[in-house]
Specification:
Low-confidence stretches: 74-78
Radius of gyration: 23 Å
Mean pLDDT: 87
Number of domains: 2
Helix content: over 70%
Number of strands: 0
Shape: elongated
Order of helices and strands: HHHHHHHHHHHH
Strand content: under 5%
Structural class: mainly alpha
Length: 322
């Protein structure tokens, strides 16, 4: 579509939102949120097809103002929160999908490297996991409880400790994007290798099934969330390195705000992962195997749908509406 046609087609709703922002037109929070989402969609389209046009900074300013109108008003509505998680976040994920794909690619390449290194170097697992961990785990495998090392403490204490630790790691992943995305890359490389070494180590010691049952009950949400958080770091880094038609500072403000929104979406998954680790994982050897794998499959399907499928469905729906 030519830029003139794009402007003509969407000008009416832009002017409508301007009137809402200037209080010349009263609308409900749901209606304002819907207009905001449409503007975000138009902004994404304009950035892709008319990156040097004046329409990009105009729509960006309009989107910022409408966001303030929605989220800084005293009148809050539950539907706005649902729209945030099931419309705004998926649209942002669609807009920045390439950074999420890059994060997954880096993780799986490093996972493969970790597997090869462990199978080809008998000391590699000790270098990555530490001698103390390896020796204690070998003793636990010998005694018939491969993952006994994770059973210390109370359920509640473990849940709170794990959640705070994983949330801190997620924040590190996110904020490391300030170092041009390099910090986020470092964390995901480290975790990709470590997860692979962990699984290979248990495989070498005939305890792979125990490790799959015990670790991926909570690890599905935990690891998937880390990959998304690293992707958020890449968004920040890219906003600094590739500002496009925007000033670098303006590009950075947009990048860090949108990355932060996506990061917020991982917090509920981090919470559930910590709950599962604190209350379910420790009983992996007492729970029937099919129940363990049912939890793992449900976790994988739900988080994959939210981050990989829903963004495309929401984006397609919005384009059809337009």
């Amino acid at each position: 579509m030519r830029e003139i046609a794009f402007i003509k087609q969407n000008k009416e709703k832009w002017l409508e939102l301007e009137e809402v922002i200037s209080n010349k037109n009263e609308k409900t929070p749901d209606e304002i949120a819907d207009l905001h989402i449409k503007i975000m969609n138009d902004l994404s389209y304009a950035q892709s097809f008319y990156p040097k046009s004046n329409v990009v900074p105009y729509l960006n300013k309009l989107a910022k103002s409408s966001y303030g109108k929605i989220y800084h008003t005293k009148k809050q509505d539950k539907n706005v929160l649902l729209a945030f998680f099931f419309e705004t976040i998926p649209l942002l994920l669609y807009k920045h999908r390439k950074y999420m794909y890059i994060s997954f690619a880096v993780f799986f390449v490093c996972f493969f490297i970790g597997l090869l290194s462990t199978f080809n170097d008998e000391n590699f697992a000790r270098e990555i996991l530490g001698n103390g961990y390896v020796e204690e785990t070998l003793a636990n495998i010998e005694s018939g409880d491969a993952l006994a090392i994770y059973k210390g403490g109370s359920n509640w204490g473990s849940f709170i400790g794990i959640f705070s630790n994983n949330l801190r790691v997620g924040i590190y992943m996110f904020l490391s994007g300030l170092f041009l995305g390099i910090g986020s890359g470092y964390y995901i490389i480290q975790n990709g290798i470590m997860v692979a070494v962990f699984q290979a180590f248990f495989y070498q010691n005939n305890s792979l099934l125990d490790s799959l049952k015990g670790i991926w009950i909570h690890g599905t949400y935990e690891i998937f969330g880390m990959i998304i958080e690293a992707g958020c770091g890449y968004i920040i880094g890219a906003s600094i390195l590739f500002p496009g038609a925007l000033k670098r500072l303006e590009s950075f403000k947009i990048g860090i705000r949108e990355a932060f929104f996506i990061f917020l979406s991982t917090v509920p998954f981090t919470f559930v992962a910590a709950f599962l680790e604190g209350y379910v994982t420790r009983y992996y050897n007492k729970v029937p195997g099919f129940v363990c794998f049912l939890i793992i499959a449900t976790s994988l399907i739900s988080i994959s749908y939210y981050y990989l499928i829903l963004p495309h469905k929401v984006a397609a729906k919005k384009l059809i509406k337009e």
